[in-house]
Write a structure and sequence with these properties.
The longest helix has 12 residues, at 81-92. Strands 3-4-5 form a three-stranded antiparallel beta sheet. The protein is of the alpha+beta class. The chain is built from two helices and five strands.
Length: 107
Amino acid sequence: SAETSRGGAAAATLDTGDRLRYPYQFAPALPWRYTTSGFHVTSGGFSDDLRFSVGVTSSGGSKVRMASISGINGALGDLGQNYKTLRFLGDGLHWNAPVVRYGCGKR
C-alpha cells in the first residue's frame, strides 16, 4: 500500500513497506529500532536538542544512543552541560554512567 505526503505541490508517494523493512534493508541490519527527539532548556534559557535511538544488542538486550546538541554556536564554556543533561537523565532511570563515544567528552 502507499500513502501520500501532504507536503505541498510536490507531494511524494511513500511505500509504507519501507518503514517495516527498516532497519533490515541494510546488511548487516542496523541495530536501531526506535528513534525520538526532544529538547532541554537550561537555567540560563538556552535550548539543547536531545536525540535518542533505542536498539538491540547481539545478545538480545537493549542499548540506547543519546545525543545532546547545543542550540547556540560556540558553547565551549558551558562546563559540560550536554553531558550533564544526559547523565541526569540516565541517573533518573538508574542507568550506568553514559560512555562518551563522540564529541567533546571523548577520551
